[in-house]
Amino acid sequence: MQVRASDVEPYTGLGYLSKLFRLIAIFLVLLLVLEVVTGLYQQGRDALATLLTEASRLVVLAGLLWGVGDLANLLIDVGHDVRAARILLGRLAAQSSMEREFVRGGEQEVAERPEEPRGHA
Fold first, then answer.
1. Would you give the DSSP letter of residue 119?
2. What residues contact 61, with CB distance under 8 A and at least 6 apart?
3. How confident is the model at residue 71 (pLDDT cuts 50, 70, 90)?
4. 119 or 35, which is more confident?
5. SS3 per-residue string spanning 59-110
6. Across 11-22, average pLDDT
7. Would you put residue 107 in left (φ > 0), alpha (ψ -120 to 50) or beta?
8. Taking a C-beta distance cutoff of 8 angstroms, is the pair 84, 29 a contact?
9. Model confidence at 96, in pLDDT bands (50, 70, 90)?
10. Between 83 and 53, whose confidence is greater?
């Protein structure tokens, strides 16, 4: 059975999107470090409350972006699984149709299984 070209195309867009979200998350963490250093240098301990609220907000946003990047990787894996299932299902369908044609072409009858008595284990 032939494999279609669309079944082997890589998910390049999702891969780039995942890397982009992770890069933005890393950038936010670096900005957070710079903001804390700058705030402590300029205002000292007076900036601590403001810096903690900003830090918590940026950490949560960076975590969400990192999670979205992981979800994009998960979508890539799901796409690969769906492609593999589609290919295997196509091969099974082709094989079963070839077997049916072989049985019809040879005019052989398929023997039926005898029924087992019910009630006996």
1. T
2. 28
3. very high
4. 35
5. HHHHHHHHHHHHHHHHHHHHHHHHHHHHHHHHHHHHHHHHHHHHHHHCCCCC
6. 92
7. left
8. no
9. confident
10. 53
* Res. 62: pLDDT tops 90: yes
Specify the amino acid at residue 37: V
Which residue's entry shows tokens 């284990």? 121
Helix (H) or strand (E) holding 48: helix 48-105
Residue type, 6: S
Structure tokens at 11: 């998910």
